[in-house]
Write a structure and sequence with these properties.
Keywords: Methyltransferase, Transferase. The protein is α/β, with parallel strands linked by helices. The protein contains nine helices and seven strands; from the N terminus they run ααβαβαββαβααααββ. It has one domain: Rossmann fold, CATH 3.40.50.150. It is globular.
């Protein structure tokens, strides 16, 4: 059985491997939560899209304890870790690529913000367009979409795109000059080898929750889809190389 303490340990290990790709991950979390706080609501309703094991949701509630956070993902294993580690969070199983996913959220009012980190690039451009269109119906006017991810400048500006990637890569090299943390694949291999994770790992395999490739890694793909969905203002709030916090106002 997966215990509370074991789940916390696995999530701490998850955070370390994620930082191997994002040495400024915590800084991006902070900028994102700053933006939610700037909405100036004591009890914001926030949807965490592709929440994984709840790393962002937990940090958001730690900073804004009166917030209501609904954490959404389709991966049974990551959701299982989150539910065991953070019983005070609300986790919802839903695939953002499947129309009607917002019905599973149980919203009693439009949300003030939707947030995401290192998740939405897995979604193909057509599915991204429909997901953002449905998200727009769940946000209040003036509500925010805050998406932290590696989003490359469009191929029409190749020199800028190359420089953005270089800035990120050089920072990563400096940060981990003494050795990199375990990578994504090694973390999943370790999970598969843990008997306490067997049931969740089997559920993940059945659900077909594994990801392959980066489907929508261009900034323009997200900006165009958000604009088509009716978001009025779209821009970057925080950036380090090609790692950025994209913001869109409903």
């Amino acid at each position: 059985m997966l215990t509370h303490d074991a789940a916390l340990d696995w999530i701490a290990r998850w955070d370390r491997q994620q930082e191997g790709y994002l040495p400024d991950r915590e800084e991006r979390f902070t900028a994102l939560i700053d933006a939610v706080e700037a909405l100036d609501r004591p009890d914001p309703l926030v949807i965490d899209l592709g929440c994984g094991p709840g790393s962002l949701s937990a940090r958001l509630l730690s900073r804004l304890p009166k917030a209501r956070v609904i954490s959404v993902d389709a991966d049974p294993l990551l959701l299982g870790l989150g539910r065991a580690a953070y019983p005070h969070l609300t986790f919802v199983t839903a695939d953002l690529r499947t129309p009607g996913w917002t019905a599973a959220l149980g919203l009693d009012r439009p949300a003030d913000a939707a947030v995401s980190t290192t998740a939405l690039h897995w979604i193909s451009p057509p599915d991204l367009e429909s997901m953002y269109a449905e998200l727009a119906t769940a946000l209040r006017p003036g509500g925010l979409l805050l998406n932290g991810d590696h989003l490359d400048t469009d191929d029409t500006a190749p020199a800028l795109a190359r420089l953005e990637r270089a800035v990120h890569d050089k920072q990563t090299e400096r940060t981990f000059a003494g050795g990199r943390p375990e990578d994504w694949r090694a973390w999943w291999d370790a999970v598969a080898a843990d008997p306490a994770m067997a049931a969740l790992n089997a559920a993940r395999t059945t659900a077909g929750a594994d990801h392959h490739g980066s489907e929508s890694h261009l900034l323009s793909q997200h900006a165009d889809a958000l604009r088509e969905a009716g978001f009025s203002e779209i821009g970057t709030l925080w950036q380090r190389g090609n790692n950025r916090l994209l913001c869109a106002v409903r």
